[in-house]
Amino acid sequence: MKTMKTSWTSKCYDVWAFFYDKTFGALVHKRHLAAMAHVRTKPGDVVLDLGVGTGMTLPEYPSNITVVGADLSAGMLAKAMDKKRENRLDHVLLVQANAMFPPLAERAFDHIMIAHTISVVSEPNKLLQWAERLVKPGGTIVLLNHFHAHNRVVAFFETLLNPVFLKIGWKSDLALEDCLEGTSLHVQYLFKTSWLDIWQIAVLSPPTEGPPEGQAEAVDGPACGPGASPALRLAGEASA
Ligand SMILES: C[S@@+](CC[C@H](N)C(=O)[O-])C[C@H]1O[C@@H](n2cnc3c(N)ncnc32)[C@H](O)[C@@H]1O
Prior knowledge:
The protein has helices spanning 6-16, 24-36, 74-86, 124-134, 152-168, 176-180, 213-217; strands at residues 46-50, 66-71, 92-96, 109-115, 135-146, 186-191, 199-205. It is an alpha/beta fold. It has one domain: Rossmann fold (3-Layer(aba) Sandwich).
């Protein structure tokens, strides 16, 4: 399966950062809002926005929760930091992190938002395996993305054009089923903002008791165990 390479992704989004909000971001912002309506928070919750990008979602979260926005690209995070400053979002923490090895504590988050990021990482199912480890039992993972079409003609063109899309920053032929491989996540429901929409919103939940210990160990990466801080083990706020 051809996917993005992390080193290229980081450079690519450092460039995207300059025009993201006025281009792709503007195109999808309505969908951000539709997806966020399904992140059902209560006061005191901690939400992780994985692949937060330029932080277009940040001003939309309620201020009675803590939001951790993580992203690989320093350029994208610098724009998110501007939004945090301009909107005085003191409840928002930003961290530069690779979602393939997130320096975050297990089961620290009530909800996780993953918008347009799963088709951008090098191992999409590993991203969801991590999300499953990071979310609390009973929490939700809201996944917003374009997934491989079931219509054969559209799917053919998505596969054909994938090498071009990979050069500009995302994978166009990613199937939701492949993303879920190796996780125990349950698809609560899927929806689109209109039947013509090519983006889908999937609301996922971990099994009631969370992943079995053995399965959690199967994911490569730093140990995020009982020794981690009760809330987050952050690499620190992005200096950008
Ligand atoms: C298409 S943008 C989406 C940004 C934002 N979520 C939105 O919907 O506007 C994808 C983001 O994922 C980030 N990203 C890609 N690979 C990543 C990784 N391995 N870890 C963390 N973030 C990553 C990129 O830097 C970029 O900011």
